[in-house]
Structures are given as C-alpha cells and as structure tokens.
Amino acid sequence: MRYGYFDKKNKEYVITRPDTPTPWINYIGSGAYGGIVSNTGGGYSFHKDPQNRRVTRYRYNNIPADRPGRYIYIRNRENGEYWNPGYQPVQKKLDDYNCRHGMGYTVLSGEYQGVTGEVTYFVPDDKDFEIWHLKVNNTRTVSQKLQVFAYSEFCFWQAVMDQQNVDWVQQINQGRYEDGIITYYPHYISDNAAFFATAEKVSSYDTNLEAFIGKYRSESNPLAVEQGACSNSVSYRMNGVGAFCIELDLKAKEEKEIVFILGFAEDRKNIREDIKDYLSPENARAALDRLKAYWDSYTGKLSVETPDEDMNLFVNIWNQYQCKTTFNWSRFVSLYQLGLGRGMGIRDSAQDTLGVMHTIPDEARQLIIKLLQCQYTDGRAYHLFFPLTGEGGVGDAPVKLFDWYSDDHLWLILAVNAYVKESGDFGFLEQSVLYNDKSSSASVMEHLDMALAFTHNNRGPNKIALAGRADWNDTLNLDIGKGIAESVFTSMLYCRAASEMIELYEYLGKHELCKKYKAMFEEMKIAINESSWDGQWYKRAFDDFGQPIGSEQNQYGKIFINSQSWAVLGKVADVEKAEKCMESVYKYLNSKFGIVTMYPAYTEYDETKGGVTTYPPGTKENGGIFLHTNPWVMISEIMLGHGDRAFEYYSQILPGKRNEDAELYEVEPYVYCQNILGKEHPQFGVGRNSWLSGTAAWNMVSSSQHILGIRASYDSLEVDPCIPSQWQGFKARRVFRGVTYNIEVHNPNKVGCGVSSITVDGKEVEKIPVYEAGTEHNVVVVML
Ligand code: IFM
C-alpha cells in the first residue's frame, strides 16, 4: 500500500493520505531552535535542547494518536463545522489532503466544503523561532464567513519536570496576552518566555489550556472552537497554550494569508522587535526561499547520476538531508528518543560528522571540538553530553560498574581524520582543546593519542580491549564485576583508528610516531587473530568468565555482524579470513530486509550478557536488523572488491524501495530507520526508530565514498569506484575544498572495481590534484 511518493523536482516527499502506519515526520530548524512535525501536524518544539528548553508538549507512548501539535482549525461561522488542513486533531474526512515534507519545512494542505487551507511550517535560517504560514482560500463563487483558530500547547521548559512534578509545574505556569503576542513563563523567571504571536487582528485568544479545550474534552473538539470564540483566558496556573481566533470573511475565490510565530525568547522584552520582520506573508515567503536556497547549497556539494534512480534520490537528497538531522540531534530527539535523559552521544555524534563532512566541514569541526572537550585526560570520553548546558556523563545504562564505554573515544579519531582529509586544515591538529575537567588542555593530536592510549592501557587477559560498560552495542553488557570481559569489536575499531593515525603520521612525516602506532596496531592485530578467530568467522567478545561470545561453540549468538565487518575495516583479517567471514555474514545473517546483528538470537534473559537478552529474538540488537551495521558490511565487501554484493546490501535497505510495502514497513520511506525486526521475529520487516540513526552517516559514506568511490584524501580527491559490474558507469559532481569536479566514470569491461586511468581536463594523472578554489575541472575515470 502506498501512502505517498517522492517529488524529485521539488525535493519533497508527498503523503497523500493522513492515516500513515506511524506518524511520518519531518524536522524543522537547524540544530538550535527546532522541532518535529508529523504528516498531520503532530509534534513538538524546543530551543537548543529538547530536555532543558522544551517549548511545546507531546504525549509519548501514544502512537499513533500523535498529539498534540501545531494545529490550525478552520471553522465555518454559518454552519459551525470545523476541520484541520492536516486532518488532525478533528479528523474530519477531507475532500482533499496532502502533506509535503521538504528540506527543513513541511506543508499541510486540506480542502473541505469549498475552502482550502495550506500551512507551511519552518524555521528561518537566521532566527530561533518557527513560522506557520497559513493560506486560506475560498474556492467557491460565493463569499464565506470563516474563522481560523491557531493552537499550540506549551510545555514547562524542563521536559522531565513537566512530567514528574505536575504539582509544582501547574502552580507556577503563567500565560499572558498583549497585542498579538501570547507569552508563557514560570512565575519565578523574569526574562525568558515561550511565545506565540501574530500580526493579524485577533478577535479572541486563550492562554489557558483548560479554557480552550474545556473539561473532559480533547484537541478534537475544543470548546473554544465549538462555540466559535476563545474566552480571553489569562493563565494564572495550570496548563498553558497559545490560541488565537481570527475572523475571516472571504469573498468568492479570495485567498487570505496569515503568519503565526512560535518560539522561545531569552528576553521576553525583545520578542516584538525580534519577530516583527517575519510577520508579513511576503517576508515569510522570502524566508522560506532563503531556507530552500540553503538546502540547495548544502546538497549541491555532491550530486550523482547513476543507473539506479533510488540511489540517486538518496545520495542527492534524502540521505544527505537525514545526515544533517542526525548531525544536529544525534540520538536525542525523535518520536522514539524523547529528548529526555539521553543527550547527544559522543560515539554517535563523532560518526554523524562523517555524513556531513563533504558539505559542512566547518560545522563538523565545531562539533568535533565539543566532543573532544568531553574527553577525560586519560583518553576515555563521556558517553553523552547536553548541548545547552555542556554537561556530560555516562547516561543511564543498566550496568553501573563502569564509567566508560570501550569505544566512545576511538570514534573521535575517525572524525578528526575525515575532517582533515576534507578540509586540508592540518593546523587543526595543533589546536589546543580543553579536556572535560575544563582546566587541562592538549592539542587535538594529543587528544587522539590519548584515545588510543586508553584502549592500549585497558586490555584484558587476551591482550585485547576490555569491554567496559559496553561497546558500540550498548546492550552487550558483559562485565559483571570481574573486570575481565573483552570486546573483539572495540579491538578491531582500535586497529582501524591506529591505522588512520599511521596514515596521517606517514603523510606528516612523523616517523617515530608512525613506528609507535604500527607496533601498537600489530600487537592488537596479532592478539585478535590468536584469541578470536573461530574457524569461519571472528568471535564477538569474551564474557567475564573468559568464555567466548559469537562462537560456533555457543548455543545462541554464534555469529555477530560487527566482528566480521570490522575485521576488514580494521585491517585485522588477512584476505583468506576476510573472505571467509564475509561469506559467513551472507550465509547466516543476511535477509531480504537487511543483515541481522547476530544469529541465533538469545531466547531468555541472561545477566552475564545484559541488555541484549532483554529483547525478544529478532528485536534490535538481539537478532534484529540494526541498520547502522549494514553499511560497514558494504564497505568491507568493497574493500574486498565485491561491488555486486555490496550493492545488493545497499539496495535491500534503501528506504525508498520500501515505499510499496509501507504497510509492513510502517516507518517513513524517505529516511533510514534504526532497526527492522529480524528474521526470527514474527513481525519480520517492520521498521522502528526512524530518523536518528548512525545508518544515515554510514550509508552516505558507503554509497558516495566506497560504492561510487569519491572520497577526500590528504592531498587529492580520490575516485576509486566499486560498482555493480553491469553498470556502464556513472556521472557525479563533487565540490572539494572549493573546487568543482565534474566526474565521469566508465566501466567498459563490466568489471566494476579497479581503475585503469584517470584524466583531468584531458591530461592523464596519477592523482586528482586540489586546484585553486573556485575553478571547475572535468575528470574521466576509466575502470579496468
Ligand atoms: O551504538 C548504539 C548507539 O550509540 C545508540 N543506539 C544503539 C546503538 C547500538 O547499541
């Protein structure tokens, strides 16, 4: 069943029916003020931090009720009927409905009884508030007397407190109205306020939820809308809302535009001045045009034309777009991660920088600095931090024995190396950055050295990395107090990180350091191969009794995905072992909806393994398809020269390919989700946790840098594709360090991997040079 389609020209996904299997959402905002908007207007807003600066409420665990949200009610004053352009919350059957999710904006359009309503939600590129730009059109040949109600429900800023301390929160809330602006603030705060505003003539308003909705009613039949007027309520306590009623007498075929602004002000005295330029429809339109231009420039650094339309759609638009959202919000705030408690993950954000590096390296560098500031002087790192307050910590994972995860710090090395390759900014490596104690500092390079040193200094009986609280797999909690559990995966990640350091030090001519890291790399590689090769694949870990996890000898969890892909990515496996373990992945872990994390899944809770065994078989880390891990397999296949296999893996998880079976898939077909229920689950194929997943960044990396092979290196742009053998080639445009490269790749012999010649502007070259910024060059790559 189809719920919508991709509108390639307008870079939008168009939803044509409101009853999607789950709310299909979009994000507005750039990483400061922002919010979530569903296809029926559900969702919420926050300012810089969804936990500490929540602006509006959302009721979780209510899917698919998907309420409340940013609602527009249109009421016919003659017959009293009312409806919403986005269908919710009144749920009146509309004569026409669609939702267009674009890049940074969402448009909801509905038609009912000769009236169309269209509302566009977005955050202007230069402001910390959101615009609701409403157009109401009388499509009839007679005039109509209408009313518009605009509504949003405020939240106390600390979103956890809003749920936990209702007694306090409800006594302190204050809501006021003055000349088109509703402010909402707690009694004890004098400067800040959330606000809702319009420049239109307001016939009545409400600041109090109970007054607008009425007792024992809901957003679907609010008293104010039913009776055709708000009650000008002043909220001295209880729950706050911003609600306006505006009278609309539309002549035949007349259209009226109204702008509403919802936001948060650090100083409420400045609200009027701050919003005044954006309250007119003309300026709102101009702001939307600027936003679209921003996104065109963001996605314009890379565009490809391959024989696969779905790949083009995702590499050019949707995957790039999702990468910016994960970069903004890590795993902090979605409809599944509630913006409470978790904060921004260090490992997550470090990986997220990889997905945006080609287009916004400066912003990536700024985030990397924040992550380095989360590092302890001994090299390990916080597990998460809160963007508004800068506080960090280890989070609320069930195992409390450790204050470190074995992998967080190692991802920093991958992020910094990717940044330097993209930007050529070697000076960054010398920049001094504080540690999390806020008093000691070290150069970026020293931070990275310490990251490797921490793992080197924390190895277990097999001389491989200790497991700590967990590794990438948050739920594999093996250390139950003995302190000897080990992670093979982290050891492989360490090898990858060490080899990136070796490459960098070689390039910089730092031979002594290079030697040191080569020795560290070799030592770990040998230890892994001696302890963890299982015959057909690599073991995953050792538990706190020294017993293997992910071995033929285990009844459950015989084989895990990550210790196969990272054996290749970490350059730990020789060719024979690499081929064998990747073949085992295909044989035991692959399925038509993606590769599962491990097999067979655990069937019962086991405290020696921890969180993974709390999940039923086939769910998430316990044998589910945890999509984040799939691109690692694709990259590994490409490193082995298997372009067809890699593309098969890539295609089978492309969300666009699930558009036709969205009823089963349930989640948005325009972004990757975090997990799909695996082959051992009765609901095999159902997706969950859309949007915030490392899948976005790593699929961007695997598709553009490995399948298509276009990647930055320290002194050149590499084009080294490994494509499906039947492709004749492809074209791409890549902006690298300000230089535009128009690339043509030819695959005359249908080999798919390996390059026989490269010419730039007609001259054969060994490497593609970095030219003067602002110039444009034509690159032709002929494959073997
Ligand atoms: O790696 C983690 C990530 O940090 C948060 N989501 C779950 C992943 C796998 O456990």
UniProtKB/TrEMBL annotation:
The keyword Transferase applies. SUPFAM superfamilies: Galactose mutarotase-like, Six-hairpin glycosidases. Residues 11-280 form the Glycosyl hydrolase 94 supersandwich domain. One of its GO terms (molecular function) is glycosyltransferase activity. One of its GO terms (biological process) is carbohydrate metabolic process. The keyword Transferase applies. InterPro entries: 6-hairpin_glycosidase_sf, 6hp_glycosidase-like_sf, Gal_mutarotase_sf_dom, GH65_N, GH94_catalytic, GH94_Enzymes, GH94N_ChBP, Glyco_hydrolase_94_b-supersand. Residues 294-709 form the Glycosyl hydrolase 94 catalytic domain. This is N,N'-diacetylchitobiose phosphorylase. It comes from the Bacteria. Its EC number is 2.4.1.280. Keywords: Glycosyltransferase, Transferase.
